[in-house]
Amino acid sequence: MISLHLALTNLKRRHSGVISFAIIVMIASCFFNMVLSTGEVNSSFESQSEKLNGTDCYILFSANMYYEDFAIFLEAKEHVTGVNAEDIISFSGKYYSPNTSSPSPASLFIQNINTERSISRIDIWDPQENKSGLYLPIAFQALGYKIGSSFILRDSSEHEYTYEILGFCNVSEFGAATNLLQTRIVATADVFHELSFNFGTKTLLNFTVDDNNALRYESQLVDYASAYTRNTQCIEMAASRTDFSAAFTLFASIISTIIITFSGVIFMVALIMAIYRIKSGINENLTIIGTLKALGYTSRQIALGHVFEYMIICFISSIIGTLFSYACAPLYHRILILITGVSIKNTSHISLDMMIILIITLLIGLVVYLSTTGVKKMPVAVILRGGLLSHNIKTNAVELEHAKGSIHRILCLKHLIMFKKQNISICIIIAIVSFTLCFGFILFEGFGINDTFIKNILDSELTEANITLDNHADIEEISRIINSNENIKKIIRIGFEGVTINNTSYNARVFDNFENLESIKIADGSFPVNDNEIALSIYVANLLNKSIGDVITLNSIGIKADYIISGITSSTMSYNTFLTEDGFKRLYAAYAPSTICAYLDKGYTYEQFADFIFNKFGYTQSQLLSGNMLNDTNNKYSSIKNTIDSKMIRLKQNYNINSMEYALNIDGNTVLSSGTAAYPIKDVYSNATLLAGYLNIFKLAFGLLATFILVITLIIIFVVLSIMVKQTVNIKKLEFGILKSLGFTTGELRKQLTFCLLPSAIVGASLGSSIAYGTTLPFVTKLFSLIGWRGFQYESPSIITLLSAAIIIIVFTYMMSYLLTSRIKRISAYELIEN
């Protein structure tokens, strides 16, 4: 009780310092509790998937390339527990709402609300009866989309389809707005049929298994292709739960880890502040401590008084921080929903809250108790002499009468040496928070501003202009025409094919020239040069347990060939293999590239390139499908021709017809004739623009994270400085009064004290930012390597990032220090003499 009484007395006497220290503890407990109480992101994803019976494997079949026999074939498999197939619309283009600033790139699975599905069910909130429109995943609600607003789809030919947002829904997967693969939306039956008429339908097949390791989906694709279609290109997309679970939760896990680490850093600052305040408080109040000992208080009682004081502060501030965590959780959950598409609700968790509060309180109490050991070692006589055993043997490092230079600079130097423990503490704290701030800025630059990380994830070549060709197109002639454009630096030709290795299906990316690649980077070895060489992504290499120099056998529609592994790329999420054109022709002699990628000169836009293609080749197939072509007013059959051509292209694409021709005869004369061969270009699009849209979401998430770190960092610096400056002013109150009586102005004394703190801020900010600059990306690389992602490619952070973090810290420290030294105004020589 005696120690508790001392603690309460100390709290009343030092209330301002108490509040400052409590703020730091409150912030640390708030964010620590917020992240821990939310739980692991992967668990939330799996929990929602279990509730909606999420798929273990999904396969997207090309139009009219799926047969019900495959579902029957799968159901007969030993480990398959459920199969569900449905028609969906695969939409690529952009989406936006009049309430949003700009369109975002869209890669959507549009599903019919009336379809019965036992796997990957959709949980619609408050479905609207007898209404026409769309239901969006909850991630769109986090983006600001609202019920009743318009949702506009814009296809590649700039044709728009406007529908009402009827509500939102939970989905087991593909609900994230940042998903680099697909996002699911649900349409009412009339909307679905309208869109399917324009874009056709494909079949999405989902199936669940009781053992993911016992039955991989890839071998089923090979069996199906061989038995029913003899064409491996019947499959457009396929993945298992391990694939898309990692893709959906990777960045959310990174952000959660960063916030947990940051809260740990804040708590470390609190520990340093506790140690500093205890030791400084002991030196400042030696007379009081000696008096207490003389009155009969034991050293243990005095030490426990300090311990109880800080434990009370921590206990109360941790409770307040926990309450604040419930208020901050919706913003944190919004970030997670954007990235994962998982519905996360704010729930109470009293037992976990109390556990965190007790741990924080006990840790602070232990550190404080260890910091009070100096009280036990000094007898009363020594304490009453100010802690001196006999006399002060310290030398005067700065003798005013012999020192040269400005008196203000000399006094600053004197203070710097006298308060070296304080300055070291400030330097350490500033270094810690500067490291954290620079760390956040570098992540924002790497994930939000630059596209380096995303490129490595995609493992695809990202160019300003891409042309998809029809199978009848003369690629050599089209390449020659494109190369004739002086605003194009270079082009590459890419084929997207399918191969199997050990009865497992993989993507084959076929390039005409690997030397021209800019986005895809090799991690180990080199890209293939000869026709018997192949490069693999790190993910494929791990699945096959192969390395550079090993030989693998590729199979394509029954034709086999051996290849030597020449290199490995860094992506841990792609099923990509890389071959030369001659290399793939060993499997398929009639191979022809399907895509031309163009690298544009600076200042030459994608829109200008699209106009160039239109002028050279006329309408593309995607433009014909949009129905927005201009008619030739000099030709009365122009409108009819456009209508017929668009219908032919739609039939060709939706029913896998190779080619179609027509002729219109009047009185025996052919007045109109054409065919699908008149439109060699399927589509023109920009990969770079698609990436920019995805980056907007990452920029939002990591921008919010960087802003959060910046704000909290500045709050911590202000709180620390308020404690340090107040304690310094109290200690030097007599000296400042004497200096004022000697003619020093308040402004001069404030500048002296401010400039005394500035060296610690400069050293700490420079040190912390430099360490973060050199270690952040290697740390992230190491983090990725733990999940099998080696050879990660990244660009070094900009030096501006380093400088901006350090300058913000230094300038803010100077401004706050000068502001906090305003309490010197209250000190006067008259007051000191009177007292």
UniProtKB/TrEMBL annotation:
Compartments, as annotated in UniProt: Cell membrane
Domain ABC3 transporter permease C-terminal: 261-372, 708-827
Hydrolase keyword on record: no
Organism per entry: Kineothrix sedimenti
Sequence similarity: Belongs to the ABC-4 integral membrane protein family.
Transmembrane segments: 18-36, 250-276, 310-332, 352-370, 424-444, 700-725, 755-779, 799-820
InterPro entries, sorted: ABC3_permease_C, Macrolide_Exporter_MacB
Pfam families documented for this protein: FtsX
Record membrane topology: Multi-pass membrane protein
Protein name: ABC transporter permease
